[in-house]
Amino acid sequence: MNNLKEFFERFQKTMEDKVVPVASKIASQRHLSALRDGLTILIPLTVIGGISLMLANPPVDLETMKPTNVFFQFLIMWKQWANCYADILTIPFNLTIGIISIYVVLGVSYRLSQSYEMEAFPNSITSLFTFLCVAGVPVALKQGNYIDVSNLGAGAMFTAIIIALLSIEINHFMIEKNIKIKMPAGVPPMVAGPFEVLLPMVVNILVFIGLNQLCIVLTNNGLTNLVFTIFSPLISATASLPSMLIIVLLTVVFWFFGIHGDNMVSAITTPIFTGNLVANLDAYNAGKEIPNIIAGNFTFIFGLAIVYLAILFNLNFVCKNKRLRSLGKLAIPSSLFNINEPLVFGVPTVLNILTFIPSLICVAIDLTGAYLATSVGFMAKTCMSVPWTLPAPLYAFISTMDYKAIIVWVILFIINVIIFVPFMKSYDKQMDLEEQNITQAE
């Protein structure tokens, strides 16, 4: 026990000496700082959107659940109520997480403008308008013109971030070089500010509409789908452990850079996972041997679902920084139902190497452990389709119809928590140092 404690103490010291300084330099870089602070603005939106989605999607399957007790009766009534009022319940989700790229553009560009001591609001409006010229082009239908909001969701986040950063850089360059409409000296800054960004706005529109059209000509996809276009040939999936590890680790990498990792790979993985699940369910109903280990949401429930809950546990029980503790409390309701946006944008995990490194390690351990536990027969294979909002340990149990799945899940969760402890402690201290520097600067 003492040896284990000494190991963690040495590891913690190594983290503080080697990793934290690097993380601090990354965090203090102007553009990465603007990205971090801009995403932090989104925390209230992601919490509200997550609660909305949770209310509209109770973890109930009306075809399989029977009103055999009071709790099941409550869940069934909740599901029936959610079905009746789904359109109303999902309004907050559709207008927060559903169009989150709009808020990303505004938040990131606003913070970067502030770092350059520019008029933040007019410049952030420029970035938003530029982004909408690429991702929110109205589509003409018989009933009128409509904007396809699917291009404004998490899948377009990477494009939103790039446009937010580059458009402000263009604005900053032109304003610094006095390439702007100059107002008389007596005009108040609040009036002159919008006119300063007029010419830069025109340049931004021309540049990004031109780039978008060029992408369409070369790839048949616009800027919002460019990343998927580049990486989709590299993502080939089979049901083997090595290929699944590559895909899930790639998902973590995408999330690190602010790209919706699940959207990136789902077009390829969903048909495979769903087909495997159907084959497993048919075999289960026929009383035959279940063929596929990786099926349904296996890679999520025994992968990132454990990782995010390990982060949540550390936020609430390991971290001491007031901001991180507050975030941990706010994220509990949504995270328990597998809605992790408050953690992704609140911690944030985007461009955060102190959450990225342990996430890669834990996902690899989790999937390998769950796969081996299944392959040796300790845990049954996934054969049931379960609502994705069901809390992960229960999901593991119901999807396999095997209580030992909970044992495997809990063991992996404990391992994840232990792995994350030194990283989250280091992040905790980094946050304290940043807050002290801000206080001293003020």
From TrEMBL:
Single GO MF annotation: protein-N(PI)-phosphohistidine-sugar phosphotransferase activity
Compartments where located: Cell membrane
Domain PTS EIIC type-3: 15-423
GO terms for cellular component: plasma membrane
Keyword Transmembrane helix set for record: yes
Alphabetical keyword list: Cell membrane, Membrane, Sugar transport, Transmembrane, Transmembrane helix, Transport
Topology class, membrane: Multi-pass membrane protein
TM annotation in the entry: 38-56, 88-108, 120-141, 153-174, 195-219, 231-257, 264-281, 293-315, 343-372, 378-398, 405-424
Ion transport keyword on record: no
InterPro entries xref list: PTS_EIIC, PTS_EIIC_3, PTS_IIC_cello, PTS_Sugar-EIIC/EIIB
Main location: membrane
One BP term from GO: phosphoenolpyruvate-dependent sugar phosphotransferase system
Reported function: The phosphoenolpyruvate-dependent sugar phosphotransferase system (PTS), a major carbohydrate active -transport system, catalyzes the phosphorylation of incoming sugar substrates concomitant with their translocation across the cell membrane.
Name used for this protein in its record: Permease IIC component
Organism: Faecalibacillus faecis
Phylogenetic lineage: Bacteria, Bacillati, Bacillota, Erysipelotrichia, Erysipelotrichales
